[in-house]
Amino acid sequence: MNVTSFGDMAQYLFLRNRSVDLTKQLDTLTQEMSTGIASDLPTKLGGDLGFVADLERSISKLDSYQVAAQESALFASTAQGYMERINNNALDLGSDILALTSTANATTAEELAQQSVSFLKETINNLNGQLSGRSLFAGTDTSTVPLESADTMMAALVTEVGTLTDVDDIAQAVQDWFDDPSGFDAIMYNGSTNSMSSVRIGASEEVNFSLRADDEAFKQAMKSFALGGLASGDYLSHLSTVEAADLVARAGEELMTTQSELTDIQSNIGFIEARIEETQTRNSAALTSLGTTLNDLILADPAETASRIEEVQFQLEALYTVTVRSSQLNLLNYM
């Protein structure tokens, strides 16, 4: 019978290497238990990590779409709020003017004219609205406040119509100033003439916020308010009571047209908001599905990992016991 023996140093090295190996296994399994991710993915997936990489890229892309969708939703809701205030002012003032025109007197005409100026200022403030430091209605130049003040507009219009008394002539001169590139565009508008680019919020979904403060619907709103404001004695003091009342009445008619156009813009923004919400729902569902698939591939089985930890711990404890007993062996104890 052959007997194979090991020297003390060989035995020491064997026990030491075995201890290091078991300790590493325990550390790996402990990390696997704490993170939930399999420690040896290549082995778990048969050496093919391509599918996992594709899933991770898809999840990352969907995450970026969700961020863009959230920002777009906030942009749309903020713009909708500004539009609502402008539209409500146009509707309220237009309705008041049409209701009071038949009984208008000098006091009524002046009050409506002053209200027109006040709403013009509010309209310009709304069109100068910002979100997170970016102008919403300045086109691509989001760092610029798109419109000059209402006082600047009214001063320019007084220069154009200062000697006129006929309502048709005043209304036409105001229209010409808004249409003339050297009028409104040069004096009032500071933003870019390029609208913001579309924003991708899904694999096949984009939204486009092309609203600018120099859009025709907004110019129509400002023109209507300004036309009513010119009836005030602060601007065209030479107008008679009848002429001032007629000018306010013309502004009221235009405001009702303006209100209809603003409602169309609000409807378009509402449609964009609905698309964003639908896309967010689809993105969220896709993220959940992809996340579940990825987890099935890379997550470790907690029960199996716990069982392996117990097994390694048992082996490690047994090794420590053997090591201690081996260290106590000597010739004196044997004798």
TrEMBL record:
Function in brief: Flagellin is the subunit protein which polymerizes to form the filaments of bacterial flagella.
Assigned GO CC terms: bacterial-type flagellum; extracellular region
UniProt GO molecular function: structural molecule activity
Residue ranges of every copy of the Flagellin C-terminal domain listed in the record: 260-335
Subcellular location: Secreted; Bacterial flagellum
Keyword Secreted on entry: yes
Gene3D superfamilies per the UniProt record, alphabetical: f41 fragment of flagellin, N-terminal domain
One Pfam family named in its UniProt record: Flagellin_C
Protein name as catalogued: Flagellin
Segments forming domain Flagellin N-terminal: 22-142
Cross-referenced InterPro entries: Flagellin, Flagellin_C, Flagellin_N
Family to which the UniProt record says this protein belongs: Belongs to the bacterial flagellin family.
Location (main, coarse): secreted
Annotated keywords: Bacterial flagellum, Cell projection, Cilium, Flagellum, Secreted
PANTHER family: FLAGELLAR HOOK-ASSOCIATED PROTEIN 3, FLAGELLIN
Keyword Methyltransferase included in the entry's annotation: no
